[in-house]
Design a protein that fits this description.
2 helices; globular
C-alpha cells in the first residue's frame, strides 16, 4: 500500500507543479491529462 500512496503522491505533486508553472506564465486556459486513474478519480471526485 505504501507504494501506491507514494506513486499517487508523486503524480499529484507533479500535476501541482505543472499548474503552478502554467499560472506563472500567465496561462489561464489549461488542460491536463494523466494516465493515473487514481489521480483522475480524485480530481473528478468520482467514487468507486
Amino acid at each position: 500500500m505504501d507504494q501506491v500512496l507514494s506513486f499517487l503522491h508523486t503524480e499529484f505533486t507533479l500535476l501541482l507543479s505543472a499548474m503552478r508553472s502554467s499560472l506563472q506564465l500567465e496561462l489561464t486556459s489549461m488542460s491536463f491529462e494523466s494516465d493515473c486513474i487514481e489521480l483522475v478519480k480524485l480530481i473528478n471526485d468520482e467514487e468507486d
